[in-house]
Fold each of these.
Amino acid sequence: MESIKSDTQLLTVDSRNPDPGIIARAGQIIKEGGLVAFPTETVYGLGGDALNPDSSKKIYAAKGRPSDNPLIVHIAEMEALEPICAQIPEEMRKLAEAFWPGPLTMIVPKTEIVPKETTGGLDTVAIRMPDHAAALALICAAGGYIAAPSANASGRPSPTLAGHVMEDLQGRIEMILDGGEVGIGVESTIVDLTGDIPTILRPGYVTEEMLQRVLGEVQTDPTLMQKVEGGRPKAPGMRYRHYAPKGTLSLVEGEAGEVTARINALISEAAAQGSRTGVLCTEESLGQYRADVVRSLGSREDMCSIALHLYRALREFDTEGVETIYAESFSRDGFGQAVMNRLLKAAGYTIIKA
Ligand code: TXA
Ligand code: MG
């Protein structure tokens, strides 16, 4: 049964120096089996007690998410690892040393105390220590283990502002902590440490090169950047249509001037057919488009700005009722891989060559 809360409390917290009274109240809600959405450095999370199977069931119900899609367990200190990890591989210690707290999630075999409801039936658990003072304080106040997927309704872009969480989950959860805009804007890098070679299952701010500098050999799941026939991404969540706006999104790739010309031609065609049109572009090209709604993600030179504003822009197209969207493409190097992975998924892997 889905539990509907008519009164979601929205409380403001200082993300660097959160009010202990507010954190204690939020932690108590989670300890009692309720749900609290909270800011992290990547995106907002929807938190419940990771060791309580009923809390995980509530998370799936609130998001409308398939329950075979496992949740990430968020911790606040290294001592929290031992009780939930059946093994702590050497790679995990090295990566934690290098990147935690931070936007990196690691998958290892789980112990009995982590319920299958939290891991979508898997024997492994995904773990992350977020780099966000309010999130870390909440994890401690909630007893040390918070299961938290991104705090969007299933299928919508992840929230980078508390207002996005309100849009999707108001009335379905007990509390939302508003810590302002997140810092990164795309979800954490996920690396699977259960195989012979550490494998990236979802690209994020921590790049393949950064992981290789610490571990040596690291590979990326080949299904991440292309539609592979019969290919099945290892992170169950990467299978679902995700990050997607309601309108139809296509990516246009090529030389800058040609991309602009091609997008304008496509926009004219769509408009002639009565479609409401949108363009996702950059500061450099902002003035050159003739669509109903044009959104810049920031300078092409600044991949951090592009990533931070991506989901907000996709949501704005929905709010504006845009039906046909064309997006400029980005380099797939470094952090660009994470941005292009999300854009490709949002576009159902449709790429138009300019
Ligand atoms: O940045 C983030 O990671 C955010 C914030 C809130 O921490 N969380 C987040 O959670 O993005 P979510 O649930 O939206 O995405 C988790 C992804 C899903 O694709 C899921 O399938 C995968 O992690 N995952 C979780 N546990 C796994 C496991 N044991 N094996 C393979 N994939 C797993
Ligand atoms: Mg998500």
Note: The longest strand covers residues 104-109.
Amino acid sequence: MTSGGDAPGMNAAVRAVVRTCLKFDIEVFGIKRGYAGMIEDVFFELNKRSVSNIIQRGGTILKSARSKDFMTEEGRKTAHENLKARGIDGLVVIGGDGTFTGALVFSKEYNFPIVGIPGTIDNDLFGTDFTIGYDTAINTAMRAIDNIKDTANAHNRVFFIEVMGRDAGFIAIRSGIATGAESVIIPERKTNLDEMVKVMVDHTTKKTSSIIVVAEGDESGGAYKIAEKVSERLEDFEIRVSILGHLQRGGSPTCMDRVLGSRLGYEAVLALKAGKAGIMIGEMSGQIVYTPFDQACKHQQELNPVLIDMVNILA
Ligand code: F6P
């Protein structure tokens, strides 16, 4: 099943899970809409052809949801009964920290074997260098920011561009560096408004426009709020705001995400077969790594501080 925010490359992972299972004569079922489908008993058998021609598609053929019912004991009990009634022996869940928090509780309550695959555009999980969907999202954000740069430059404007990342600045930092942003505002660093205003004033002497990339999860409250504060101080600047939003979550996955999804899907089946459970499969420095669910969610991957320092120097 896929659960939580969808991410490009999830379909590659689903395809790999299905085809690896079939290779080992393991029957495989898909569950629609994540934990919601587990509770509502929406299971369907998958075969080789069910996952044909999906590797290049964004979204998820299994659909996704954020289930409130699974947070209740009653909901999890029903889900467990459905799994047992269908003779399901193990689960592969593809999602982010919400998905793994649910998996952790469920596997402890019912001692059910679950292996997780990191699928979220936010890249905010510990135990993998990259999550499935992150590479596509940063490339999508980069192209969108490039477009905005053209018009910003034509009008000598300052743009505050908000990118996704509920609790983390991974999308912001990479899309910011890749587009030559003047500043990147992320939750991992406290925003110093004075410093930012100074950077903007300095840049307008040399340049005609500025791009400030803002992670939606920053403590400042997002691009509109921060733009408002800055425009109070820099009345002469023409300031505009653009929220990239869900366009970052869709689209055909990049080669990196297709390969990562395929590898992690394949490895998840091997891990379950080998009796591993309660873990997320990740890839670090090219090696497969198993991380217990509680660590994958609670110990957020740290954003490399060098990248943060670089932004100002290169701007
Ligand atoms: O978890 C991925 C993510 O895209 C976050 O970056 C964002 O804050 C959130 O999902 C949006 O969720 P929804 O689509 O449910 O509004």
Note: Strands lie at 29-31, 43-45, 91-95, 114-118, 158-163, 183-185, 210-215, 239-243, 279-284, 287-292.
